[in-house]
Design goal:
The protein contains six helices and no strands. By secondary structure, it is mostly helical. The longest helix is centred in the last third of the chain and has 32 residues.
Length: 201
């Protein structure tokens, strides 16, 4: 079961997704796994300790569960909404209050407070819109390393003698000089024939 609350603002084009109702929101906010671990450890502590030691152990279990509930929802259940993570922690407090736990060891605690916590939790879940989670900020671009082509601050590559460009230029110059030498030799032969010093064969 997907534990992320689907709100009216989560509509995806081409996908039929109906928003969660009130009771679905309440159930998805209750950290079942954390509550189960808390109830087991609290029962074991009640059998092993009494008096002041029991009060301290129940307080430590309550504080640990209060931190573990939103952390577990975010890491294991992929819940990203801050509103749902907050209500997940609140739901854990309500469950602990309803079962007694550390609150039952306080002198001023009575049965009115669990009822009050349950009503406040239910009203808050009904009033929250559970909007979409905030998008992650974009990652900054990686810094360009010197020497990489096409990057600012890149050092132009120095061509060594004998590379393609030098060979092409040398070949072009050599070919041109060779053509000029051949032309001069042909012109000298024509002049000698015209002067009669070198009769044509």
């Amino acid at each position: 079961m997907n534990r992320r609350i689907v709100s009216a603002e989560d509509g995806v084009v081409g996908v039929d997704r109906s928003p969660d109702g009130y009771f679905d929101r309440v159930l998805k906010c209750i950290p079942v796994e954390v509550v189960t671990v808390y109830v087991l450890l609290a029962s074991a502590a009640a059998n092993a300790f009494d008096g002041r030691a029991l009060q301290w152990w129940l307080f430590l279990l309550f504080a640990g569960g209060l931190i573990a509930a939103p952390v577990y929802a975010r890491s294991a259940l992929a819940v990203r909404r801050l509103s749902q993570l907050t209500m997940t922690a609140a739901a854990f407090v309500v469950v602990v209050a309803a079962t007694g736990g550390w609150f039952a060891t306080l002198d001023w605690w009575n049965g009115f407070f669990p009822l009050l916590a349950s009503v406040l939790f239910g009203v808050t879940v009904a009033m929250l819109t559970f909007g979409p989670p905030r998008p992650k900020p974009p990652k900054p671009p990686k810094a360009a390393q010197p020497g990489q082509p096409g990057q600012p601050g890149a050092v132009p590559a120095v061509r060594e003698p004998g590379d393609d460009a030098t060979e092409t230029i040398g070949g072009t110059i050599g070919g041109t000089m060779g053509d000029e030498s051949a032309g001069e030799a042909e012109e000298s032969a024509l002049l000698r024939v015209w002067r009669g010093s070198d009769p044509p064969r």
